[in-house]
Amino acid sequence: MIDVLVAGGGPAGLAAAIHAALAGLEAAVVEPRTTPVDKACGEGVMPGGVAALRALGVEVTGRELRGIRYVDGTTRAEASFRGGHSGLGIRRTTLHSALHQRALDLGVQILPGKVGEVRQSADTVTAAGTTARWLIAADGLHSPVRRGLGLELPARPHGRYGLRRHYRVEPWTDYVEVHWSRHGEAYVTPIGHDLVGVAVLSRSRRGYDAHLADFPTLTASLRGPAATEVRGAGPLRQRVRHRTAGRVLLVGDAAGYLDALTGEGIALAVATAGAAIRCLAAGQPAAYERAWTRLTRRHRLLTGALLAASRRPGTARLIVPAASRMPPVFSAAVRALQ
Where is the FAD-binding domain (predicted)? Predict the structure, then answer.
């Protein structure tokens, strides 16, 4: 019997397995997809996420990011990350490969397959034909484990969706650019010397090109050809009753998701995975719910405030002008995301 079985081999699941191995626990990951795994995401890792990955021994390389810039037509506001720290623009497949290799180097077993039914006893949990002391559910935004355990709350109407494509063009910025319109946002992340990723988030269910037409300032910069197909995800918001159920703990997107607006997905995935493993290693699984709440509080407050402001077209168009008129406030918000 192993110590920790992880459902899902994305960044959160692999981070949990790496944390477990570093804590002296035997871990295995169940994942049906082959490496590397791609996902529709902004691909910008904030400085805190970069530091957390390196603390796990995961060496990631990418395009350095100096800060965040908000753009609405000719109006803009920008703030650099504090202390000279940098984020990274990194292809999701590159990040996944680095995490996967680190897990293998630490002796983590990667088991092909799906978790399916989860059976629990007083001191074990069994899934995918494997028995463990604990199960970490890191199986994504629409987690089957979460659903099977009755931990998710009904979805609310008018959810937001994300679409992403890459363009073969030299980056014109070393900031993550967030372009705003009355329908949603477009996130530009420099990935390499000749590659940028452009992700759009919106409540409107339209094609990628129709969304991009709302951002003429951005489209004028995308002179290179599309380098990848459009990939989508959503609805983004996922509400969860609890993050623990017996010997099962939820981490990453499976633990509940608000929105991708502030770009903290990887940092939160690594942080919540580490908290879950620390609670298990200490024999205090019930403490994980409080730890998750504490770790995600700032993200939930900032993201919730921006979502509320962007919900109505009239207030959405005030976000960038307000940020440009109050640089200290905008800088404080950006640095709070580090």
Answer: 2-282
